[in-house]
Amino acid sequence: MTNKSFPYKRFRTIGVLTVLAVYFLILVGGIVRSTGSGMGCPDWPKCFGSWVPPTDVSELPDDYLDIYKEKRVEKNRKLAGYLDKMGFEQASKELFDHPSQYIETEFNVTKTWIEYLNRLVGVMIGILIFLTVLYAIPFLKRDKTVFYLSLLSFVLVGFQGWLGSIVVSTNLLPVTITVHMALALVIVAMLQYAVIRSQSASIDSRFQFSPKLFTVISLVALATFVQILIGTQVREEVDMVASEMNGSNRDLWVDQLGLSFYIHRSFSILLLAMHLYMAYLIYKLKDRRLSVMTNWMMVLLVLEIAFGVIMAYFAIPAFLQPLHLTIATLLFGVQFLILIIYYYATKKAIEKPVVVLN
């Protein structure tokens, strides 16, 4: 199989489309949360018991609130039972005893259809990731790792869908949302690595491997990953404050946030310094491809910091919440891409000496 063969191009194309689709889903998911549409469909995978959601409350039974609350409670009871049998008694107790699952969510046609569209995008990703696995089959002869990474991504997407049902059944239980976000980032990273690995033969060796630079890039990506998870926890606190204040007085929300917000804000200063140092080291390589990606990384970083400042000091504008999250995930994606490209641009240099460019 040559680099210009049809199977190679087909896998690369579907892999890139799948990665972009996952980022789009993250954006849509952010919109769902910023509009408070997470419980727009109180059941899963159907929406109010139908594959096509209702457009008016008159299409639902009078006691629909009790019906779907009981369905959620019963599903959580079964899950808690499984956790209890596996020895996770504390997790089981916290899950089933959490008051969020007993909150009734009234029908709102706008929120219902926003959540429904979110699920449709999820279905689209399921189809794309299945095609990714299908088109990765030829790599079983050339590079089995590419195939197994694609297959594992497919399995994780399925698990992500199941986890999404738990998010719904627990009425947006905070810890499930954080795990949901973390898993999305892991899936993106795996798909990116599979795609780049599939075309690694076309990446020329340009410089010798530097453990220092590789470690710096890895630490920046890891720190960004952690920062995103902390930000997810901050967002959970924002949702709780918004609920307690009935969505009003947005200018007072920030003052009600806990320790996670201050850690998130302070950690961003350290992240900025780490990014600047990483960019300095990469620019010294004088490699056009890595420099361009680093430029994009810095642009995303500036936007992310700017949006964070605006949100903190200007009453958390709703339209910025999904953008803030999406740019953060894109930032992580670019960092991980730089890490992979750098590794493969130096891999052959490990095997045989090449001329150092700097």
Would you mind describing this structure in some detail?
By secondary structure, the protein is an all-alpha fold. The protein folds into 2 domains: 1-202, no CATH class; 204-358, Up-down Bundle (Four Helix Bundle (Hemerythrin (Met), subunit A)), CATH 1.20.120. 73% of the residues lie in helices and 0% in strands. The chain has helices at residues 6-34, 64-85, 89-97, 109-136, 139-142, 144-169, 174-198, 211-244, 259-285, 288-313, 320-351. Helix 1 packs antiparallel against helix 4 (109-136) and helix 1 (6-34) runs antiparallel to helix 11. It is globular, with a radius of gyration of 22 Å. It starts with 5 loop residues before the first helix and ends in a 7-residue tail after the last helix.
Give the SSE map:
Layout: H1 6-34, H2 64-85, H3 89-97, H4 109-136, H5 139-142, H6 144-169, H7 174-198, H8 211-244, H9 259-285, H10 288-313, H11 320-351
Helix pairs in contact: 1-4, 1-7, 1-11, 2-3, 4-6, 6-7, 7-8, 7-11, 8-9, 8-11, 9-10, 10-11
Which tags fit this structure?
single chain, 358 residues, mainly alpha, Four Helix Bundle (Hemerythrin (Met), subunit A), 11 helices, 73% helix, disordered C terminus
Kindly state the mean pLDDT as a whole number? 85
The proportion of residues forming helix, as a percent range, comes to: over 70%
SSE topology string:
HHHHHHHHHHH
Distance between the termini: 34 Å
Envelope shape:
globular
Count of β-strands: 0
The tally of domains stands at 2
Measured by DSSP, the beta-strand proportion falls in: under 5%
Describe the sheet with the most strands: none
- Please tell me how large the radius of gyration is: 22 Å
Strand-pairing-aware structural class:
mainly alpha
Tally of alpha and pi helices: 11
Uncertain residue ranges: 352-358
